[in-house]
Amino acid sequence: MSSEDAFISSLKPAVELFIKHVEMGSRIRIVTHNDADGLASGGILSVVAHRKGAAFRTSSEKKLDEKLVRSLAEENPSLIVFSDFGSGYTDLIAENLSQDVIILDHHLPAGHEADNLVHVNPMLHGIDGAREIAASGICYLFAREVDEGNRDLSCLGLVGALGDQQDKGERKTLTGLNTLIEEDAVKDGFLEKHVGLIFYGYETRPLAKAIAYTTTPYIPGLSGEEGACLAFLREVGIPANEGDRLRSLADLTDEEKRTLFSALSSHMVSMGCDAGAVHQLIGTIYTFRLEEPSTSLRSGREHGSLLNACGRMEKPGVGLSICLGDRGEAMAEAQEILDLYRRKIGSSLGLVRENDMVEERDHIYVIRAGDTIDDTVIGVVSGILLNQGILKKKKPIISTAASEDDQMKVSARSTEELALRGLHMGLVMQKAAEAMGGGGGGHDVAAGAYVPIDKEEEFIARVNSLVPEHLKE
Ligand code: C5P
């Protein structure tokens, strides 16, 4: 049996347990992470539960910790389904929860299995959970196994992968099991793909806005700066409008697209970005055909950004409503949240630059933000800084920010190259956080932890010494 088949078979016990509880009329509790992948996962599971007529409640949470499992134990539902977290916390779950539990996750597993736990994770079958499938993809395959009628959730199944930046294949394609979901979406007419300049709103958004709204890649001086984008277009001789009508990227001639690409590349290099960052300008564009062309939901990547914004600006309920199909009130609110989120990222990056906040240690870069940058966006900011290639040494970046309950939030970002050399930041975070009485985990290139705030320096020193132990020369 291939590892893919073995993984898909591993969904069966989870589906059977879920259906058994639906048929028993049990109270089902869906608990999901609050980023794009978590919200899309929770959305899929909620739609599945709703369609089955189950009695369920869904919440999305910033972290899975003792406080959360204790409150779930008090609620005492008959079945708890965790999505996009759980795999790194099986011991905590088993120690505190005695009812049936399903975990649908793609993060690094840690701890022991238990009799009341049905644990579904591609990594348990040798499949790369950081690149080949996200939690929303697992939830989609789960949904399809419950009922073929849930195939209309395929785009939502891909949103988590795009939000988690799993588009690591050639020309920024999704790979592995994600392509299985993609095939469903294309076959059913929900998804269209083409290769081009990666800006959000390719078909419909005015050119300057499309460039300004794009956060991956993040272009210094242009991302978030519509006025600067307009001036830039003027400078390179690309008219932003045709008569009264504002032009979109799709309106440009091939010659104009080439001119734009080359001007953007030169601009990025002049701002200190490396070739890898410039390369990110072109890739596969995922268009969700049933979404309104003028909205942020039409482009798969922007859809992911919008959900990430809802989660990280502490409005996960708005994101969940969108996943459940609300295109009215929730959509208007989400659009405002996304604008604020973009501004927050822009101002946080400005703060890091103006105050020269990136410190270089022997084996890592460090940002100690304290309470100057929100713990919810510190990870995004770190990812952008590393992906721009402005930090020249091949080192991961570890950022810390003050969080609630005297805890410090840590976000770690690394590169594909370092991952190939054996560096797994999820493992480093897990080991270093546990040694400080905290908890951590995640993927090889994106990971995180929570650690008592007074252990900040000790934690950073520990990470700095763990990194070279993982790296193969
Ligand atoms: O919060 P941030 O975006 O930096 O997290 C990066 C990755 O690490 C996410 O996939 C998150 O789920 C994971 N993580 C984890 N355990 C933690 C903190 C973060 O698995 N304690």
Strand percent estimate: 15-25%
Our measurement of the CA-to-CA distance between the termini, rounded to an integer number of angstroms, reads 35 Å
Can you summarize the main beta sheet? 6 strands, mixed
Kindly provide the radius of gyration, computed on alpha-carbon positions and rounded to a whole number of angstroms: 22 Å
Q: Which fold name corresponds to the CATH topology of the largest domain?
A: inorganic pyrophosphatase (n-terminal core)
Query: What's the structural domain tally?
Result: 3
Q: What small molecules are bound in this structure? A: cytidine-5'-monophosphate
Mean pLDDT: 96
Structural class by secondary-structure content = alpha/beta
Strand numbers in spatial order across the main sheet: 10-11-12-13-15-14
- Uncertain regions: pLDDT < 50 for 5+ in a row? none
Instruction: Kindly state the number of beta strands.
Output: 15
The percent of residues in helical segments reads 40-55%
Judging by the overall fold, what is the CATH architecture of the largest domain? Alpha-Beta Complex
Q: Quick one: overall form?
A: globular
Name of the CATH class of the largest domain: Alpha Beta
DSSP summary: helix tally = 18
Q: Would you mind describing this structure in some detail?
A:
- This protein is α/β, with parallel strands linked by helices.
- It has 3 domains: 3-187, inorganic pyrophosphatase (n-terminal core) (Alpha-Beta Complex); 194-350, no CATH class; 355-470, Diaminopimelate Epimerase, Chain A, domain 1, CATH 3.10.310.40.
- It contains 18 helices and 15 strands.
- Strands 10-11-12-13-15-14 form a 6-stranded mixed sheet. Strands 2-1-3-4-5 form a 5-stranded parallel sheet. Strands 6-9 form a two-stranded antiparallel sheet.
- α6 (154-163) crosses α7 and α13 packs across α14.
- The mean pLDDT is 96.
- It binds cytidine-5'-monophosphate (C5P).
- The site of cytidine-5'-monophosphate has 16 residues, from β14 and β15.
